[in-house]
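Cross-posting from the chemistry board since nobody answered there.

I work mostly on the small-molecule side, so proteins are not my area. We synthesized zinc ion and want a rough idea of how it might sit in this target. Sequence and SMILES are below. Is it possible to get a predicted 3D structure of the two together?
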Amino acid sequence: MSAGRKFLIAAAAVLLAAAVLYYPFKHRFSKRAPALINSVHAGKSVVLYFVNEEGNLVGLDRQIVSGVTVLDDIRAIITEESSPQKKSGLLNAIPAGVSVRNVFIDDKRCVYIDFERALTERHGGGTQGELLTLEALKKTIAANYPELDFVKVLVEGKEIASLAGHISTRGQLKVR
Amino acid sequence: MIRKIIILLSLPAVLLCQQAPKAMKVIIDAGHGGYDAGAVSDNGTKEKDVTLEMALLLKKHIEEPSEPPVTAILTRSDDKFVPLIERVGLANKSEGDLFISLHMNASPAKRDSGFEVYFYDSTGDAETAAVAKRENEQEGSADYKDKSNPLFILWDLAQNEFSKESSEASDVIQAALDGVLNRNADASLKLRDRGVKQANFLVLNGMKMPSVLLEMGFLTNRSDEDKFKKTEFKERYAATIADAVRQIRQKFDKKSETRVR
Ligand SMILES: [Zn+2]
């Protein structure tokens, strides 16, 4: 087989795989949901949420390099929100150093963010602390993905009752 | 003569209608406990210890002699873990007139300070239906998520009534604390008033009585934390909540009198 022919077959296979991946979501998100696969891997402007010294949530404009899918981008955004912000002096609404295990979206425009157990183990507690975490997640999704309506917090793939014993996280949180 | 007989016969009914206000039962919930320390300050002060101490103080002040008497039931009286669902169950089983959950707040921002009074927010909450379902599961009933179900409607009406009274109770507690610990307090005992708020609390969900959750102060704020080490401050704090409870009772008594008329 010639090199040109091999290239054509490989290109066709990649296109077919992309189509198969995209098709199940095409109907679900036909109106306003984000296309899951990013067309170009380029810089993307996003808004991240942190807590200032007064205890208020503030939005910061940042550039991220977008991943293969929107789900990769959401994971990157939340991971950055959980990283210590030494330069700006801002504080983390999402406990520092907590990894996101997985992100997925259902057909009801709800994004599921699956954290590692450190989310609850490292959480400082308090009603205000819990509300800041949940608000930051809701605002992040509202600002960057207006097509999504709900966010659901998971830990190790499972629903949790609350972050630290106060506010219920059993339901889906309406982002706006 | 016949008139006198009628008056005499109707006397028991009149007496029944003019019953003295009934005793009040307050459920005091000390947040966290046992392996659940709650928020912990940089100095190691644990939320579970402060809430227990304040709950015991509040019980003492609430049970000071009054007519009619007010009794207090604690969801925990020592350092043990009590699941939230059991706290709700205990309060409902005890048929309390008011539920007060005591907590200490925490925030990533050390400047966050003060007290705030919360009551339950069920707006748009799928949980309310789930609780109604759980409560009635033994009766083998239908799907309570169906909002046209008569049992769901009854549950909803009861929740709305409790929500109104919880909001009123929160206002009374906030106003009392604002007066004593904020506006009229010396600088050393002054605590910021963050107002009355609503949120979807696990411990207030399914409560069959007016209920509030009081975040008494921030353990992550040095000044707030230091105040909770002063006996005078804690006594004054508990006495102020107890005064507010007596005001709430008067308010609710007046309401039920109006209903009888
Ligand atoms: Zn607490």
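Reply from a structural biologist on the board:
Welcome over. Reading the output above for you: The pocket of zinc ion is lined by residues A 165-166; B 31-32, 38, 47, 103 (CB under 6 Å). Chain A touches chain B through 27 residues (CB under 8 Å). Happy to explain the token format if needed.
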